[in-house]
Amino acid sequence: MRDSPVLSLNNLVIGYDAPLAKPITLDVHKGEIIAVLGPSGVGKTTLIRTIAGLVRPVDGSFDLRVKPRGGLGYIPQRLGLVRHATVAHNVSLGARLSVDWSRSMFRERKERTFEAIRALDMEKKASEPVRRLSGGQQRRVATARTLAQRPQLMLADEFLGELDQKNVDTVLGAVQQLVENGTAIIMVEHHEDNARDFATRIWEIQDEHFIDLSIEEWLHQQSKGEEE
Amino acid sequence: MKYRLFGIGFILVVLAWMTLDGLVEGDWGRLEGGLSNLLVFFEESMWPPDWSVLEARSYPVCDQDIELLCSVGYLGMMETLKIAFVSTIIGFFGALSLSSLAARNLMPLYISLPVRIFLSAVRSLPSLIWAILFVIVIGFGPLSGVLAMTFYTVGYLGKLQYEVFEGMPNDPLEAGRAMGLGRSSILLNIVIPENGNHLLSQLMFMFEYNVRHGTVIGIVGAGGIGYYISTYLKFLQYDKVLALLLLIFVVVVLIDLLSLGVRSFVNEEGDVRKPTWLSMVLQARKRKSSFGEDA
Q: Would you say A33 and A202 are in contact if contact means Cβ atoms under 8 Å apart?
């Protein structure tokens, strides 16, 4: 029997005032990696922002069964980094949420911060302000922040964009660590290759229709489409 | 576009001229002889400045080795600087706590609106009126000055701060909220670091402003160099007044230079720092040696 879902969408209708897609009902379980695909403007970002609690659903509801403090990791399209603060400060925001109050809290936070920085290969930049980093490096910082946070559900909006293959591998390696610890991931993706290599499930939004497929079903569909 | 802007500028100047004409009720005769009156007053009463304000006062007896340290100019200026420093620092932190409550992107409307109204009310009274109020309530002296300047700083800096907060990009705030950071944590770890440059720049500006206005509030008895200026004005010792005004001018210029130096380290890009003489010499050497390698 499967564990209880970390996220349940109950007839959820996403959009800003007007609906962008038909009602969605589904569950997300621990360790699942979901890639949200679809053309621009169909509501992929709106879906992520709705689950993050930043946009009100037009109709329906969703149950988020994660810790209110630090249970949800979020990497927005523009990354949400504090540009004028250092890499270490940004990553420590995640660590702050994953370490509970104790006497050794500050030491643990520091350790967790530098563990995440090392995992993303950013040690040399730890004391640099984020605004001086390249787009790709900033994406690695945002990922390190979530890695240090150790959330139960991670939402990421095109966080692999602008990265070369080496960086994609570094970032996905770090995210894999989270998945092994049971984090579920929902990521908006533009590159189908990344979805193919990494995701276990695909959500596709097209012409207001929401399609939920396992990666096998999606790959089968893709190969059928290519044959035709 | 250029002509349109020029046209708007021209209309505004004509409008200002017509308003001024209305204010003086067309009686421009009063300005006649104004300049010559000013020159006579300056030559006969103010010039040359009486620099005895930088000599030790006859009473109380000076116990310092350097005479300047017992002078009216030095003591008054130091008191003004102290009043400005204390009120800027206390006012800055007071403003910070209120501006974080007043920013629309950090707080709901039912909290931000009353705080904004409070800040507007505090700001609507100029520091001079605050000084008069505090002189009435707690008497003459620097404490009235400190309180007056602190209140004004809270009102003025509070507005500047919440406008900066509201202008910051939304994505770090949204990320913090979605992750589950509390309001105070978002303020301390996201909002303040992201706007640190602006806050520091405003702090320096406010200190300079408070030094300049510290001279004015002294006139109503709230301490500082203004107290001495008002005394000399009463006794028609305009040459001493001029000497103190020149002293204020020099100090304000020095603070402006200091503030320019501090702000050059925290501009938006941050990377472009003012070069030091040492770094310039080192770079020149480095360049020379690299040319040598090329050859």
A: no
- In percent, the amount of chain A with pLDDT more than 90 equals 53
Which residues span the domain enclosing A110? Answer: 83-151
Residue A71 within a domain: no
Contact B53, B71 (CB under 8 A): yes
Of the candidate ranges A167-181, B114-128, B179-193, B279-293, the one whose mean pLDDT is the lowest: B279-293
> What does the block give as tokens for A71?
């249970």
Architecture of domain B67-268: Orthogonal Bundle (1.10)
Would you write out chain A's pLDDT as a tens digit for each of its 228 residues?
A: 567 899 999 999 998 888 888 889 999 999 999 999 988 888 899 999 999 999 999 999 999 999 988 899 999 999 999 998 999 999 999 999 888 887 888 899 999 999 999 999 999 999 999 999 988 899 999 999 999 999 999 999 988 877 888 888 888 888 888 999 899 999 998 888 888 888 999 999 888 888 899 998 888 888 887 776
Q: Which residues of A touch B178 (CB under 8 A)?
A: 52-54, 72, 74, 155
Is residue A72 in some structural domain?
no
Say how far apart CA B80 and CA B223 lie, in whole Å.
7
CA torsion sign for B167, B171, B176, B182 is: positive
Per CB-CB distance under 8 Å, the chain B contacts of A49 are 174
Q: How many domains does chain A have?
A: 2
Both tokens of residue B31?
Answer: 């300005």
Q: A82 contacts in B (CB within 8 Å)?
A: 172, 189-190, 193-194
Given A110, A133, A151, the domain boundary residue is A151
Same domain, A160 and A59: yes
The CATH number that applies at residue A177 is 3.40.50.300
Question: Are B179 and A155 within 8 A, CB to CB?
Answer: no
Q: What is the mean pLDDT of chain A?
A: 89
If one counts every other C-beta atom within 10 angstroms of the C-beta of residue A71, the result is 20
Q: Closest approach of chain B CAs to the CA of A22, in angstroms?
A: 25
Structure tokens at A198: 């990494």
pLDDT band, residue B160 (cuts 50/70/90): very high
